[in-house]
Structure formats: C-alpha cells, structure tokens
Specification:
The chain has 8 helices and no strands. It is mainly α.
Length: 159
Amino acid sequence: MLGCMTPPALTITSTRIDDIPLLIGTLIQMGVPELYDREVKDHGHHEGLSGGWLLTVWLTFILSQGDHAKSHVQEWVMRHREVLEKLIQQPIAERDLNDDRLGSVLKRLSHRERWEAFETALCSGRSTCMKSKMIHWSGPGCGWIAQRRRVTTALKRRG
C-alpha cells in the first residue's frame, strides 16, 4: 500500500552557540593561533591541539563566560565540542584543554621574552592594540583577568 509507509524518524539537535563563532573568528583574524605557534612554540613532546589553538579556545571561553578559572574550561569545551571543532577545523580531544595543558600555555607565556615576542607580533601594525607591562603570574589562572580586559578592549575598538 502506497499511503501506509511510515517516514523515517527525524532527530533534531539544538545547540546554543551564543558568541562563540564571533570570538573564535575575531581571534583567528587577529592571528592568535599562528602567532602563538610561531613566537611561543610548544615544547617538543606536545600532542593534540597546538598551543595557539589551546590559547584561542581558552580566550574564547574567558571572553564568552567571563570566567578565567582553568578548572571550568574542559567541561565547557566538551559541551561545545561540535561547534568548536567546526570553527577551528580540527578535532578536539577531551584531554586537549585540561588543567595541565592550559597551565603549560600559561607557563610558556609567562617567560618575558616569549610574551614580548608574542605581544609584539600580535600588535605589529595595529593601532588598536594596547601594549602593557609584563604580567607576572603568581598562581593558576592569575593574570588572565588583565589579559581579558586588554583583549576585550582590543575587540571593542575593532567592532
């Protein structure tokens, strides 16, 4: 019988993406992933997402959620994994944005020469970038508040 066929089940999944595409796009446009990977570099045994992509996703979390705590990033990334992978065009493993990995990015950025090279590359030719004095990291996640303010100011001036 022609009229008795049951249509296949349709599954609809809805995911809130909020400001994630805008933030990722802006950070990519600013060159954050490439500049970190070029100026700061990962240590020789690093696997998974590069430090530049870790920093980009982490800054997206900080700016989107208004939270600089490393301990909340991994859970947030796993909730938004599908959209993040599509935006950065790379797979994200659960271990990629754990506390240890994020701590490694912070530690590498806390070296004065690396930070200054990264900041100089990020700000070269940009009148909207506001250089600051070196931030001294005194504990897990410390200093990112100042970074967030500076990045937020740079983003607002571009908009």
